[in-house]
Design goal:
CATH architecture of the largest domain in chain A: Orthogonal Bundle
Structural class of chain B: alpha+beta
CATH superfamily of the largest domain in chain A: Cytochrome-c3 Hydrogenase, chain B
Mean pLDDT of chain B: 83
Low-confidence stretches of chain B: none
Number of domains of chain B: 2
Number of helices of chain A: 16
Oligomer: heterodimer
Number of domains of chain A: 2
Largest interface: A-B, 37 and 32 residues
Number of strands of chain A: 8
Largest sheet of chain B: 3 strands, mixed
Shape of chain B: elongated
Bound molecules: iron/sulfur cluster
CATH class of the largest domain in chain A: Mainly Alpha
Order of helices and strands of chain B: HEHEEEEHEEHEHH
CATH architecture of the largest domain in chain B: 2-Layer Sandwich
Mean pLDDT of chain A: 82
Distance between the termini of chain B: 88 Å
Chain lengths: 403, 179
């Protein structure tokens, strides 16, 4: 190396007078601890571009050796101003935007939003539409949980194979969505007072076929998962969440039930026609990552039961309330909170109407975001490699966390 | 015994591997672009404007009422009304759009424009191979590019198009009786 290139490099290396270069820090994200050179802790910024953070999510982790002693989640990289846009578009115009919240489960997002607007304006929904909503919501739950399990095994190092199996099954369900709603992921299918198009008999037949084939996939997946020693070693007693902490932090969905709290909005609220269905709510015992995994498998089995009953009971009839006009829709002055049990937890929309065509306030209660708040409590004392697994078992989608 | 779980997992992967040669259910990959699946009837991508007869300019159903422009959530439609009038499919004199642009780089395929249009003039297209090297002019669709014939509409959405035609014919019939 010649002298001139050395001289150029020294500029990057910092001052030569013995002081270390000052690295500028963002005060909002720094953990405020010693750096590696003069202390024993190491600060690592995981993400936002990390293959296992399920989107653009960043964690500032302080490590003592390999053990996590401090963790700070940093989000907002995918912020799209969803709520403010909702206040500036018509009620109908917000419906396609809700697809983009949790892009894995656009149909449950549609339902939660439609439910709150229906509450706000007192709109009745025809019976067939309610059944279609339940069918689509449970199909959404199936594909969400299946892909979550695939992702989680992928995070644990089982690259590819389980994820591809899960995506193969998910693909079949997405094909159903595509032929009914017109799009695989951005379904934009529900409307206030019903659903946009009716499902023909051939669609129902195809859906039944997919449903019949699903238990075989579940059996195989359980074989891959339940007794596999590596999965057990990586997940049991990792990331324990106590019921007390879960309740006081407002955790909902499979994560709360894995800690043994019996709280499922399908039973508690009984929205839609869920009270007409017979199904059990699986509960966990330990609240660790393994329980959270198994919770998803058991919930899929219950979803299959619900779907079977729904296909039997679904009546003929209209799918749209003819009294509702979508254009220049103006609900009366008031406020409403509609919530459903989404695949990830309680998904709610809080709307305040001032009688105009736009909501005065449009607020989303995202389950991913609130379930993420206790990430530090779950991860403390575990190793870096466990952080990814714990994060995977929380089941987040950044589109919903950041909105 | 330790290791049994892993072995039974391996058996599952083996069954899937071998099965992918025999069962269609286990190997669902489609070798695009050599193989193509037929798109479902309800598939939607970007909107287009329907015209009747053979003349794209004269047969355009759109009357430039601007409802879709107002309702489109991301505001990607731009319409300028004409100064003169032309007869529509029922022979009534109507305005027509002098300019009708849709910026499909902004459009989110939500179908709201289709749902609110009272004249059955805008429908969803199925073309999806739209990649291009330039992201402004090529993705800004002008009226000429957007106009497609009713025959084309029948080809891509046969059931829906037949319904629409029946509705329009019934409306025209009712009008004739009144007059
Ligand atoms: S497409 Fe339909 S809604 Fe839009 S301006 Fe034309 S007639 Fe009106
Ligand atoms: S499909 Fe939706 S986003 Fe696209 S032009 Fe129509 S209303 Fe606008």
């Amino acid at each position: 190396m010649n002298m001139s290139s050395r001289a150029e490099r020294s500029v990057v290396e910092g001052p030569r007078d013995g002081t270390s270069p000052v690295i500028p820090r963002d005060p909002s994200t720094a953990l405020g601890m010693t750096t590696r050179l003069d202390g024993e802790l190491l600060e690592v910024s995981m993400g936002p571009q990390h293959p296992s953070t399920h989107g653009v999510f960043r964690m500032n982790v302080a490590l003592d050796g390999e053990t996590v002693v401090k963790l700070k989640p940093v989000f907002g990289y995918l912020h799209r101003n969803h709520e403010k846009i909702g206040e500036n578009t018509s009620y109908l115009g917000s419906m396609p935007y809700t697809d983009r919240l949790d892009y894995f489960c656009s149909l449950t997002n549609n339902w939660a939003y439609a439910l709150s607007v229906e509450k706000l304006a007192g709109i009745e929904v025809p019976e067939r539409a309610e059944y279609l909503r339940i069918i689509l919501a449970e199909l959404t739950r199936l594909q969400n949980h299946a892909s979550l399990l695939g992702f989680l095994l992928s995070d644990m190092g089982a690259w590819g194979t389980p994820l591809m199996y899960a995506f193969r099954e998910r693909e079949k369900i997405l094909d159903l969505f595509e032929s009914l709603a017109g799009s695989r992921m951005m379904c934009d299918y529900m409307r206030f007072g019903g659903c946009r198009v009716d499902a023909g008999p051939d669609w129902i037949g195809r859906a039944k076929k997919v449903l019949d084939a699903f238990p075989r996939f579940l059996d195989e997946f359980e074989k891959l998962l339940v007794s596999n020693e590596i999965v057990i070693a990586r997940t049991q007693h990792i990331g324990k969440l106590t019921a007390d902490l879960a309740i006081s932090a407002g955790i909902t969905g499979p994560m709360l039930r894995a800690s043994g709290v019996n709280y499922d909005l399908r039973k508690v609220d009984g929205y839609g026609f869920y009270p007409r269905f017979k199904f059990r709510v699986p509960l966990g015992d330990h609240g660790d990552t393994y329980d959270r995994l198994m919770m998803r498998v058991l919930e899929m089995r219950e979803s299959i039961e619900i779907l079977k009953q729904a296909f039997e009971q679904i009546p003929a009839g209209p799918v749209m309330n003819p009294k509702v006009k979508l254009r220049s829709f103006r609900p009366p002055v008031g406020e409403a909170y509609g919530r459903i049990e989404g695949p990830k937890g309680e998904l709610g929309f809080y709307l305040i109407s001032d009688g105009s065509s736009n909501p005065y306030r449009y607020r989303v209660r995202p389950p991913s975001f609130i379930n993420l708040t206790i990430l530090e409590d779950l991860c403390l004392g575990h190793t870096v490699a466990d952080v990814m697994v714990i994060l995977g078992s929380v089941d987040i989608v950044m589109g919903e966390v950041d909105r | 015994m330790i290791g049994i779980g892993i072995l039974s997992g391996m058996a599952v992967t083996l069954r899937n591997f071998v099965g992918s040669y025999f069962e269609k259910d286990r190997l669902i990959t489609v070798q695009y672009p050599e193989e193509r699946e037929t798109l479902p009837e309800n598939y939607r991508n970007f909107p287009f404007l329907v015209y009747d007869t053979d003349d794209a300019a004269a047969g355009l159903r759109c009357v430039a009422c601007k409802i879709c422009e107002k309702e489109c959530p991301p505001q990607c439609i731009y319409i300028v009304k004409s100064d003169d009038k032309k007869p529509d499919y029922m022979g009534k004199l109507q305005l027509y759009p002098k300019v009708f642009d849709i910026d499909i780089s902004v459009c989110m395929s939500c179908q709201i424009c289709v749902e609110v249009c009272p004249f059955e003039a805008i429908k969803m297209d199925k073309v999806f191979e739209l990649s291009c090297r330039e992201r402004f002019d090529t993705l800004l669709m002008r009226k000429e590019e957007l106009s497609k014939s009713n025959i084309y509409y029948h080809k891509i959405h046969p059931v829906e198009a037949a319904e629409v035609d029946a509705n329009l014919a019934a409306a025209a019939e009712a009008k004739k009786k009144k007059a």
